[in-house]
Structure formats: structure tokens, C-alpha cells
Amino acid sequence: MCLDIDDTLIDFTSAGKRALSLLIGRGDLWPLWERITDWHVARVVAGEIDYASMHQRRTQCFLAEIGIVLEAEDVARFECRRKEVLRTSWRLFDDVLPCLEWLRAADVLIAAVTNASGAHQRAKLADLGLTRFFDHVAIAGEVGAAKPDPVMFHSVCAVLDCDPSEAAHVGDKLHTDAVGARDAGLEGVWLDRTGGDTAVPEGVHVIGGLDELPQLLVSEFARIGVPAQR
User: Fold this and answer.
1) NCBIfam families in the record, alphabetically (predicted)?
2) Which regions in the chain score pLDDT beneath 70?
């Protein structure tokens, strides 16, 4: 079982918005931050820059976009403060621990699969007591590919010694997570916590919370090794 981290296990968006709003004094800039971050993360995955440089350049670019031009030292201080606020703001969704405990009790191998920075993701998992649940943590910048690239999903299957058809991936992004996993030969599960009206592509499963995952696994994915109900 592969699980995305941000906004699947950890309420990343709420924490990120809170930190940015506190530092900038505005609550409407999150979409711009996400777009700039995605562009810079793509450069990390392509091997053009490392994560540390990405954080600095991303933040400098974002600030410049909203008319704030700072020296490198001031950008570094801004980024350091943002990370401090974030680290005190991480929260698990209520359905996370029961789901992970069920998967572990069922002897399902579990991997965290993320496009974000390895150091920060591992710190989050450790801070929130999740490290013990995972057999593997796959980081896009370390793999050299990012979701939805099949290479990302196949690398996890190789580490866990399973065929893609024997694995499932759950994430909050419909195309990056669920469709990407489906196209890579895994079962793709979209975690739609908001319950919108988005059209769901064929072959993608939808759950409204991780509390629905055990039933889906038992009823639909017996081949990945989850025991059937008796």
C-alpha cells in the first residue's frame, strides 16, 4: 500500500496557509505559492537544483512576485521562520492512525510516496509518530522521478518486492496520485475529502476518508494480500 503524505496523512494545506498568512499578512496568496513551488520542485526532480537551493529560490521568487525584493540573507530568515511555524502546525487527519494501525495489523507493506523534500517529509513523519508504520519512504528528488511518472511508482514496487498489479496508491490529487498510479499498473485511489463534483476517470476508485480504505481493500483488492473478511 502506497500513501501520499501531504493532504492525505497530514493537513499540509491548512498549515502552509497559516504560516504564509502569518508572515505575509495576507490570506489569498496560497495558489501563487503552490504554482511557484511546483515549478521549482520540477527542477529538483530534473536534477537541476537540490532541495535546499529550491527552498531559497522558490521563496525569493514568490516574494518578488508580490513586490517584496530581499537580499539572500533576509530570504533565508523568512524561509527559516516559515518552517518554524509549519513545524508547530502539522496535524494528522483523524482517520490516519486507525487506518495505518489496521494496515499494519493486516501485515500490509506500507510506503509513503511524496514529491516533496525528503528531509522535511521524514521530519514530519517522525514528529507526528508515523515513521514506525512505513516500510519505505519514496522521495521524488531521490528517485529522480515524480508522481505521476510511472518510474516513481515502479521504484516503490521494486523496493517492496511486489508487482504493480499487487499494489495500490492513495492520494489527494486525482491526476498526480490516482490516475498516475492507475496508469503505472497499480490500483489508483483518489482521496476526495471535500466531496466535490469532479468527474472521475475510469479505473480510479474514490474514498471520502481513510476510514473507508480498509473496506475498499478487503472488497476490491484481495490480490494485494489483504485478508478477506470472515
Assistant:
1) HAD-SF-IA-v1 (TIGR01549)
2) 221-230
